[in-house]
Amino acid sequence: MTIKLRLGGITANSVVDGPGLRTVVFLQGCPRHCPGCHNEALLNPQAGREVTLEEVLAEIKASISPLTQGITFSGGDPLLQPEAVSALVRQLRADYPSLDVWMYTGYLYEEVKDLPVLQLVDVLVDGPFVQDKKDLELVFRGSANQRLIDLVKTRQAAEVVQWQPPTW
């Protein structure tokens, strides 16, 4: 069976979707339609383009350089395509074990914590964008209700642990 995804696009060398230089995979489709959404073009689940797992892997691999620190999945909402995204992350983990994986979702962690794909993710940025809580000073998120959850430490502690930037 061929795995397919609805892709909005891929951006190389992002510095706003997690620490360091990152490849960002934008998945198509989001049911929330948050007022003030900065990715409105990605809301429609039928827009973008349908690609096979092999096609998107080739595009991602072409965007990765020796300076790339990680891969971020954004959208839309990647959790609308959990099986396909899980297969993609599994393959990227095998091919690039040194890269960290971040994911943005409008869902709260507590709503999606049992999805298998989250076992493959290092940091989850959860929660819908809330216009009244918009804060341009926040790092890697748009509104104050959103959390940066260190999923590795959360799994170890069996409670939500917020991600902290590394100290040098």
UniProtKB/TrEMBL annotation:
Catalytic activity, as annotated: glycyl-[protein] + reduced [flavodoxin] + S-adenosyl-L-methionine = glycin-2-yl radical-[protein] + semiquinone [flavodoxin] + 5'-deoxyadenosine + L-methionine + H(+)
CDD domains: Radical_SAM (cd01335)
Class in the EC hierarchy, top level: oxidoreductase
Keywords (A to Z) from UniProt: 4Fe-4S, Iron, Iron-sulfur, Metal-binding, Oxidoreductase, S-adenosyl-L-methionine
Radical SAM core domain ranges (all copies): 16-168
Cofactor or coenzyme needed: [4Fe-4S] cluster
Listed Pfam families: Fer4_12
Keyword S-adenosyl-L-methionine: yes
GO molecular function list: 4 iron, 4 sulfur cluster binding; [formate-C-acetyltransferase]-activating enzyme activity; metal ion binding; ribonucleoside-diphosphate reductase activity, thioredoxin disulfide as acceptor
UniProt xrefs under Gene3D superfamilies: Aldolase class I
EC number, as in UniProt: 1.97.1.-
Family, per entry: Belongs to the organic radical-activating enzymes family.
Protein purpose: Activation of anaerobic ribonucleoside-triphosphate reductase under anaerobic conditions by generation of an organic free radical, using S-adenosylmethionine and reduced flavodoxin as cosubstrates to produce 5'-deoxy-adenosine.
Protein name stated in the entry: Anaerobic ribonucleoside-triphosphate reductase-activating protein
The organism of origin for this protein: Desulforamulus aeronauticus DSM 10349
